[in-house]
Specification:
The chain is α/β, with parallel strands linked by helices. The strands form two sheets. Strands 14-13-12-11-7-10-9-8-15 form a nine-stranded mixed sheet. The protein has two domains: about 170 residues, NAD(P)-binding Rossmann-like Domain (Rossmann fold, 3-Layer(aba) Sandwich), CATH 3.40.50.720; about 180 residues, Dihydrodipicolinate Reductase, domain 2 (2-Layer Sandwich), CATH 3.30.360.10. A hairpin with a 3-residue loop joins strand 9 and strand 10. Helix 5 runs parallel beside helix 6. Helix content is about 35%, strand content about 20%. The chain has 13 helices and 15 strands.
């Protein structure tokens, strides 16, 4: 069975299931949600632990193409059935929802396959590997009655609600620039994300053709399989691993749509270990209504952690996570508002106090209520993916790229 035949069959099965189970029916709070998971690597295992800690949630199946990952997942959910092929999991009628935690280049395939099978889906970020996939996923999700949550966990932070309230109250005024950054460091000779290759990572223990999916066929390549984040064929690099979280946060805080243009510069400067994706990056995103969003990142220094500055005519919002004081070595973080005294002379500084919510719990609550308005719905998955892919297209073509140009471009491996 080829991919088109499988999706077509799954779609038919999903429609039949929807006709008999009435997916729009709200569930009682006591109803057990039976989940499956596709992709049991480190991120998937964390998602799995987060899910099964919640009341009324049971994992009944896990699919992964690597035997080691199935064994590790079995240690977390010993009663769940393990599969080496996700299609066998999707064929089950007793699964309500599926977590997709595969490498990013497989997100679109499995998000759409899960929807076609009539199941709710939690898909890790970035929602897709390229723009065409983002368009297809949004279309599929909007045509479905299933509940979609994208793994943009910062969308459930209380700090985001603080920022939105301050914006809506007019405390910040017109924002013309947002500065954002994410910095990390590694020991000399060690590149960020580079993983050791286990001795059993071979063609006997990994279904490599299923991993490649529609990528050019090649003999088993342990480096590509274990370190897929380092190669354009499988990854969007730091843009789709980290910037996407922050740009989604900024989009939500300011109620933005697609950028009108993107520029990106940088390169492999920290560790020249054979990787293709850059480790030192400067991005400029131009948005309608006089707004520029800047994002910079390095894997050579961790002093400033992660954060954003919203620079408004009447005030500033500073959101910081993981900065380290140079003198005391203490962690600092949180969200604060500071008035611009020139335009708000009576304004006072404010500290964010809104409590956050559990991102996985939010998905489960929406499943029970049959509410498609999750904290990170397909629309924010789409908008953050567009911004990310436009940035990478600019870097790879070495030119500023407009939204119109990006929508027509075909992303290359």
């Amino acid at each position: 069975m080829n991919r088109r035949e499988f999706i077509g069959g799954a779609a038919a099965a999903g429609m039949a299931a929807m006709a008999t189970t009435s997916p729009l029916r709200a569930m009682a709070a006591s109803d057990r949600i039976r989940i499956g998971m596709i992709g049991a690597g480190s991120r998937g295992q964390q998602d799995l632990r987060d899910a099964i800690k919640l009341p009324g949630v049971e994992c009944v199946a896990v699919a992964d193409i690597y035997s080691r990952r199935r064994d590790e997942a079995k240690g977390i959910v010993p009663d769940a059935t393990m599969y080496d092929d996700p299609r066998r999991l999707l064929d089950r009628k007793d699964i309500d929802a599926v977590i997709v935690a595969t490498p990013v280049f497989l997100h679109s395939k499995y998000l759409q396959d899960v929807l076609a099978a009539g199941k709710d889906v939690y898909c890790e970020k970035t929602m897709t590997w390229d723009i065409a996939e983002a368009v297809a996923c949004r279309k599929a999700a909007n045509a479905s009655s299933q509940v979609v949550q994208i793994g943009l966990q910062h969308e459930s932070e209380g700090a985001l609600e603080d920022a939105r309230q301050w914006m809506q109250q007019g405390l910040v005024g017109k924002v013309t620039m947002v500065e954002a950054w994410m910095s990390r460091n590694t020991r000399h000779g060690e590149g960020e994300w580079r993983r050791p290759i286990p001795p059993d990572c071979d063609a006997q223990h990994v279904n490599y053709p299923l991993f490649l999916n529609d990528r050019p066929k090649e003999a088993f390549n342990a480096e590509h399989y274990m370190n897929w984040r380092l190669y354009w064929e499988f990854s969007g690099g730091n843009i789709t691993e980290n910037m996407v979280h922050q740009i989604a946060w900024i989009i939500t805080a300011l109620d933005l749509k697609e950028p009108v243009a993107a520029s990106m510069m940088g390169g492999v400067f920290s560790e020249k270990d054979g990787r293709q994706v850059p480790d030192t990056i400067s991005v400029t995103l131009e948005y309608p209504n006089d707004l520029v969003v800047l994002w910079q990142s390095t894997f050579s220094n961790s002093r400033y952690g992660l954060g954003e500055h919203f620079l408004g005519r009447d005030g500033t919002i500073e959101h910081i996570s993981g900065a380290t004081d140079m003198v005391t070595g203490k962690y600092s973080g949180g969200i604060n508002y500071y008035p611009e005294k020139l335009n708000r002379p009576d304004g006072i500084a404010l500290k964010g106090e809104c409590p956050g919510v559990n991102h996985m719990q939010n998905w489960m609550d929406c499943i029970r209520a049959r509410n498609k308005k999750t904290n990170a719905p397909v629309e924010i998955g789409y908008l953050s993916a567009i911004a990310a892919h436009m940035s990478n297209l600019s870097y790879r073509t070495k030119q500023r790229i407009t939204l119109e140009e990006a929508m027509k471009a075909k992303q290359q491996y």
